């Protein structure tokens, strides 16, 4: 509703869509991912809180109001409220009372009871062994007040028949039959009071502690102290007993002024107030209204549930929602009881409906948001994204409803005000359990509903096509989806406000909220004026008369109604302010502040705390075991998603100087070369091992510098292309990763420059490894390890090549875009010249043939970049402001993707294929590009997603027809995420970016403290700035979302001494499916996305970019002295 109220300012009633970077989006999204990854922990937290708040309920609530516990709601409306002074109601009964005080909270002693008995006898006449039934049948006639005998007095008692002259009274002295002898003989006053708490008077009214004592103190469910004895006369309008009480009260001060301080001092109770006491059972209209409310809510719930096709267990979801609402209501009951908030004035059936209506609003919004997330995403990302999208609206709705209830609680009667407090607390607890209990259960259901997602989307497509053939969707369907104004966005609030108004109408009738608002506006109060005299402030009453009246038990009201108006549900009483008698010399100063919480709450802490703690621990432990048993099959998923978003592992101790070249394989091999000609192989599979294959002067003479490296697809062979300084020719050396032994070394006639490409020939087996070299002058040579020879150079490309890539089908023939109608070439090589021309060479019948591709937009005099997507059998070619998808089969452009104006390199790509993709057709569930924008040099993560009504993007030729359930590239949804100062980065197969950068610092440069032209590796003393604090590792998830993004320090504090100071990173290489290796000085920083490293089990991409040596890059300064940072 808040969005409707803000319509004049915002111009729309829709909730705002926050960007992923907004704190109100990113913080809930991060929490949602954490909750989804730690399902058991989240469930245990919610279970612990629920147990803590629900277990005490039997100890805090009771059906017996007198024992210090809170009263449970019944099926009645009850209230004791003052009426306005302007009310013209005729009272049904008149109440007069005296309050007898001694010292503060010292009313329960023998002397005060005897003194109160004297006052009672002065006002009513002798009451010893009071039995009015003995006067039944006596005709009292018309008597004067001063001639009222005890017999005639008893004859007018209500026990002898209801007349306009009837009367009865309440007194604590009735526990002893108003007998002085019995009081004196009682050795334990407190035991008598507690044992006779259910004793009835001759008028059939129970002598509850609430009506005969004021300012009560309870311990262990027993009354232990009271501040005042309350003696109350109730009489009808013409009762002579009432007139006698009034006349005798005027003369009482003169008789007892030596013993008592009396308020008012003249004994005249001049001020009075009309009070209404109700005990109204639920009417047929009430039952029908609640039945309709529950019926409509359940109907909406079931219809909304029927539309959730992707939910694995709808019965389980119903149980979860019911459990959450029960938790919220019971938790609110406990809090209200603890803080002495009386909830017994509203029928118990009304409490759940308001919470149910508002809870469903948040629940279905969250479920629908989860369903709309791509089901190819990880569970934690789906939950995080959905919770980020809905949490701020749920929080705003919760805050709005709590504020509305807070305002209403000041305008309504006391019973309804307490209901408003209960509803506000329950709403807060409902939001808490939504964020913990429901979110955890939902994440488990999402983790197990991948098949349900696919079936749901197929069913949705079928229904959508059926709807498209008809007219627009019905008004009811649009309301259920929350797309029109009368939706769950305001339904919960409307139901809440409506119920409060209905409850107020029950209590006030025509005296409604509107009159209160008018009174507040005009500055005049329409409520009852405060009848209490300021003279009572000095005696420090533990409870004021007004407060005492309002807390009267509803069962007492029912008993009085049965006496004076048997056929009614309420009565009106004129209540005179009490005569207060304070024993002279009494100390009325409170010795301590009275406890603010419910007495039963203190009893619970004193007697049940140890058992309570044990039960909470047992429940949590049992739930832990149960969840481990029920969720054991999701253990792997929880392990993979349960760790940190990103971790950094240091591969140190393998080199003594900077690493200048790195290559890797998909199954966990990393090969690194350093400036001191140390070549090391790292295997990160399992526990991780490493070994040196070359080091020292011998390696420097035969292997260094290394120009290029490559690992074959089976990770059996490593090939090194090197050009020793004193050698006349370059050398290709083979190392067996399987046998850890050198193979042959073959001299090749190549220049000292880096080749355009260096890779293993996919047409040969691992027993006869062969390397292909594409030189910058456009020639192709092959080096065979089995014959130790180099083949003759073949000119297949023009000169001045800048980039070349190999394209080969997988040996298991699992490439999707493999044309079945005709043979596909076994291998192709695509190259781009410095002038921007793209050429593709094809190997057919052992002969390479080349052609220039007619790609529109290329051919400019600028550099371009090529990558190969083996799963799609496509080349990726970068332009100045677009990317081309080129078929490996015939070189045709299958799709042109428009981008920002970008640098030619680096260009990275990741994608996911639809499950129904096959050799003939391919659908992409997402497609991501990573490139550097030319103007800002920011990194752009450009993601293509299917439109909302489609499952995938159809990878097709421009003229092909599109599958009806898939969309064209032109209809896809595009998101762009900008990363400022990306540093060195790479993209992993799930579309996430991983990078390392230096923080941007204002002014100065990294070398300000060093000598010009030298690399100062030693930190100067006295410099407080942490030289490693500026290095940070970051990750970014695909799409416009940033809730899954993370940035952290690269070098942990305390580990600086193990690192060399550097000004820039070395080369990098992707490892496995979720890791990237970065050269950082003399060590490798392996950044792992997720909790554990995932390696490729199948063959590595044949077209992997062979990592070329970084030694050829020009250094910015000479080689200076090296040193490690000392601690």
UniProtKB/TrEMBL annotation:
Protein's cellular compartments: Cytoplasmic vesicle, COPII-coated vesicle membrane; Endoplasmic reticulum; Golgi apparatus membrane
Protein name as annotated: Sterol regulatory element-binding protein cleavage-activating protein
Known function: Escort protein required for cholesterol as well as lipid homeostasis. Regulates export of the SCAP-SREBP complex from the endoplasmic reticulum to the Golgi upon low cholesterol, thereby regulating the processing of sterol regulatory element-binding proteins (SREBPs) SREBF1/SREBP1 and SREBF2/SREBP2. At high sterol concentrations, formation of a ternary complex with INSIG (INSIG1 or INSIG2) leads to mask the ER export signal in SCAP, promoting retention of the complex in the endoplasmic reticulum.
Gene Ontology molecular function terms on file: sterol binding
Bilayer topology annotation: Multi-pass membrane protein
Database matches in Pfam families: Sterol-sensing (PF12349)
InterPro entries tied to this protein: HMGCR/SNAP/NPC1-like_SSD, SCAP, SSD, WD40/YVTN_repeat-like_dom_sf, WD40_rpt
An example Gene Ontology biological process: regulation of cholesterol biosynthetic process
Region Disordered: start-end pairs: 1096-1127
Gene Ontology CC annotations of this record: endoplasmic reticulum membrane; ER to Golgi transport vesicle membrane; Golgi membrane; SREBP-SCAP complex
Main location class: membrane
Mapped WD repeat ranges: 652-685
């Amino acid at each position: 509703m808040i969005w409707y109220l803000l319509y004049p300012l915002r111009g729309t009633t829709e909730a705002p869509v926050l960007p992923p970077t907004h704190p109100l989006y990113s913080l809930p999204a991060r929490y949602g991912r954490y909750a989804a990854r730690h399902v058991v922990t989240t469930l245990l937290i919610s279970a612990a809180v629920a147990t803590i708040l629900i277990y005490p309920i039997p100890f805090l609530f009771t059906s017996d109001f007198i024992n210090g516990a809170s009263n449970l709601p019944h099926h009645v409306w009850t209230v004791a409220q003052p009426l306005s002074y302007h009310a013209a109601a005729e009272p049904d009964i008149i109440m007069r009372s005296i309050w007898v005080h001694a010292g503060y909270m010292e009313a329960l002693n023998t002397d005060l009871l005897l003194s109160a008995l004297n006052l009672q006898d002065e006002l009513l006449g002798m009451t010893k062994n009071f039995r009015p039934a003995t006067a039944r049948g006596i005709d009292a006639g018309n008597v004067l007040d001063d001639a009222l005998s005890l017999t005639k007095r008893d004859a007018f008692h209500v026990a002898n028949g209801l007349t306009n002259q009837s009367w009865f009274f309440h007194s604590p002295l009735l526990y002893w039959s108003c007998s002085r002898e019995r009081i004196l003989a009682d050795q334990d006053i407190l035991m008598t009071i507690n044992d006779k708490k259910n004793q009835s008077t001759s008028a059939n009214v129970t002598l509850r502690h609430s009506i005969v004592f004021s300012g009560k103190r309870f311990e262990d469910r027993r009354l232990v102290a009271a501040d005042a004895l309350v003696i109350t006369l109730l009489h009808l309008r013409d009762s002579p007993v009432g007139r006698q009480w009034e006349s005798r009260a005027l003369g009482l001060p003169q008789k007892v002024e030596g013993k008592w301080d009396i308020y008012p001092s003249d004994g005249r109770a001049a001020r009075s107030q009309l009070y209404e006491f109700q005990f109204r059972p639920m009417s047929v209209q009430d039952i029908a209204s609640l039945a309709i409310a529950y019926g409509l809510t359940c109907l909406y719930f079931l219809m909304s549930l029927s539309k959730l096709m992707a939910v694995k267990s709808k019965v389980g979801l119903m149980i979860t929602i019911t459990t959450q609402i029960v938790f919220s209501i019971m938790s609110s009951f406990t809090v209200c009881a603890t803080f002495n908030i009386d909830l017994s004035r509203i029928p118990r059936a009304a409490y759940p409906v308001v919470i149910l209506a508002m809870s469903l609003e948040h629940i279905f919004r969250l479920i629908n948001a989860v369903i709309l997330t791509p089901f190819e995403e990880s569970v934690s990302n789906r939950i995080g994204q959905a919770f980020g999208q809905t949490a701020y609206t749920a929080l705003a709705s919760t805050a709005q409803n709590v504020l509305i209830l807070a305002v209403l609680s000041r305008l309504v009667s006391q019973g309804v005000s307490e209901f408003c407090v209960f509803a506000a607390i329950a709403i807060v607890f409902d939001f808490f359990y939504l964020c913990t209990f429901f979110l955890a259960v939902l994440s488990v259901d999402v983790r197990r509903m991948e098949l349900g997602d696919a079936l749901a989307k197929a069913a949705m497509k079928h229904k959508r096509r059926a709807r498209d053939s008809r007219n627009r969707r019905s008004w009811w369907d649009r309301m259920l989806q929350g797309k029109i104004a009368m939706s769950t966005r305001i339904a919960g609030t409307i139901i809440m406000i409506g119920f409060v108004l209905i409850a107020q109408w029950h209590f006030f009738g025509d005296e409604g909220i509107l009159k209160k608002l008018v009174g507040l506006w005009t500055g005049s109060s329409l409520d009852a004026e405060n009848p209490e005299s300021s003279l009572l402030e000095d005696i420090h009453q533990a409870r004021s008369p007004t407060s005492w009246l309002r807390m009267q038990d509803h069962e007492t009201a029912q008993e009085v109604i049965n006496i004076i108006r048997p056929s009614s549900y309420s009565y009106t009483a004129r209540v005179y302010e009490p005569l207060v008698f304070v024993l002279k010399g009494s100390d009325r100063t409170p010795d301590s502040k009275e406890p603010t919480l419910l007495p039963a709450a203190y009893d619970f802490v004193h007697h049940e705390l140890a058992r309570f703690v044990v039960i909470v621990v047992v429940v949590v432990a049992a739930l832990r075991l149960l969840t481990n048993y029920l969720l054991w099959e999701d253990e792997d998923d929880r392990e993979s998603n349960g760790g940190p978003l990103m971790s950094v592992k240091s591969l140190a101790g393998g080199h003594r100087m900077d690493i200048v070249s790195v290559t890797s394989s998909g199954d966990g091999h990393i090969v690194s070369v350093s400036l001191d000609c140390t070549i090391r192989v790292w295997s990160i599979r399992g526990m991780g091992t490493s070994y040196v294959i070359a080091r020292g002067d011998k390696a420097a003479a035969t292997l260094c510098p290394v120009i290029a490296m490559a690992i074959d697809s089976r990770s059996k062979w490593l090939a090194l292309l090197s050009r020793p300084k004193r050698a006349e020719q370059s050398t290709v050396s083979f190392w067996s990763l399987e046998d850890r032994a050198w193979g042959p070394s073959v001299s090749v006639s190549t220049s000292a420059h880096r080749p355009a490409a260096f890779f293993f020939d996919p047409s040969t087996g691992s027993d006869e490894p062969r390397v292909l070299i594409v030189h910058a002058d456009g020639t192709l040579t092959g080096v065979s390890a089995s014959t130790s020879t180099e083949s003759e150079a073949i000119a297949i490309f023009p000169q001045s090549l800048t980039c070349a890539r190999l394209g080969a089908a997988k040996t298991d023939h699992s490439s999707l875009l493999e044309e079945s109608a005709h043979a596909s070439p076994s291998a192709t090589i695509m190259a781009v010249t410095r002038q921007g021309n793209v050429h593709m060479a094809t190997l057919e019948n052992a002969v390479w043939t080349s052609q220039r591709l007619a790609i529109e937009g290329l051919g400019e005099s600028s550099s371009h970049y090529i990558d190969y997507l083996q799963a799609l059998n496509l080349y990726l070619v970068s332009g100045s402001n677009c990317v081309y998808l080129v078929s490996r089969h015939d070189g045709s452009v299958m799709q042109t993707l428009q981008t920002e104006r970008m640098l030619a390199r680096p260009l990275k790509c990741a994608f996911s294929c639809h499950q129904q993709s096959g050799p003939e057709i391919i659908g992409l569930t997402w497609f991501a590009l990573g490139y550097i924008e030319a103007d800002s040099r920011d990194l752009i993560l450009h993601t293509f997603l299917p439109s909302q009504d489609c499952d995938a993007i159809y990878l097709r030729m421009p003229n092909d027809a599109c599958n009806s359930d898939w969309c064209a590239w032109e209809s896809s949804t595009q998101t762009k995420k900008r990363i400022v100062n990306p540093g060195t980065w790479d993209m992993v197969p799930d579309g996430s970016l991983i990078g390392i950068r230096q923080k941007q610092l204002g002014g100065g440069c990294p070398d300000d403290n060093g000598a010009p032209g030298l690399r100062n590796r030693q930190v100067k003393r006295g410099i407080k700035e942490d030289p490693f604090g500026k290095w940070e590792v970051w990750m970014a998830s695909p799409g416009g979302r940033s809730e899954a993004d993370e940035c952290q320090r690269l070098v942990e504090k305390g580990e600086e001494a193990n690192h060399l100071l550097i000004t820039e990173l070395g080369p990098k290489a992707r490892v496995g499916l979720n890791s990237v290796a970065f050269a950082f000085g003399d060590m490798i920083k392996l950044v792992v996305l997720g909790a554990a490293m995932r390696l490729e089990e199948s063959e590595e991409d044949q077209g992997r970019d062979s990592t070329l040596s970084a030694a050829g890059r020009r250094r910015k300064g000479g080689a200076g002295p090296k040193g490690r940072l000392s601690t």
